[in-house]
Specification:
Oligomer: single chain
Distance between the termini: 52 Å
Order of helices and strands: HEEHHEHHH
CATH superfamily: rbstp2171
Strand order of the largest sheet: 1-2-3
Helix content: 40-55%
Number of domains: 1
CATH topology: rbstp2171
Number of helices: 6
Radius of gyration: 15 Å
C-alpha cells in the first residue's frame, strides 16, 4: 500500500474511504484525491440519472492508492455503502454573503 504522506504530497488532500466488501465483510480501503471541476461536472450529470453510476465514476476518477477500487465497484453492497460516504468528497466549502 502506498504511503499516505507521499500521496498527500503528490495530490494535496487525500480522502480515505473504507467499506465492507464480500460476503465476509472484509474491509477495503482506497485513497481518493480531491476532485477537479471536470470530474465534478461529469459526476453531477451522472448523479441526476443514477447515484451508483456517479459513485462508480467518482471512485474510478479519484482513486490514487490503496486497494483495487474494483473490489468496491464490482460489489453492489460495497458500492451502495461507498455511495453514502461520497457526499464528503462532493461537498463544497461554505461561505457567507451579506449586503453592505
Amino acid at each position: 500500500m502506498e504511503n499516505l504522506e507521499a500521496l498527500k504530497l503528490k495530490h494535496g488532500s487525500v480522502f480515505t474511504l473504507t467499506v465492507p466488501v464480500g460476503d465476509e465483510d472484509k474491509d477495503c480501503t482506497v485513497y481518493l484525491k480531491k476532485m477537479d471541476r471536470i470530474v465534478y461536472s461529469a459526476a453531477i450529470k451522472l448523479l441526476e440519472k443514477d447515484e451508483l453510476d456517479a459513485t462508480e465514476f467518482l471512485l474510478n476518477s479519484l482513486h490514487v492508492g490503496g486497494e483495487n477500487v474494483k473490489l468496491i465497484t464490482e460489489d453492489f453492497e460495497a458500492l451502495r455503502a461507498a455511495s453514502k460516504l461520497m457526499v464528503e468528497v462532493i461537498k463544497s466549502k461554505e461561505g457567507s454573503i451579506k449586503k453592505n
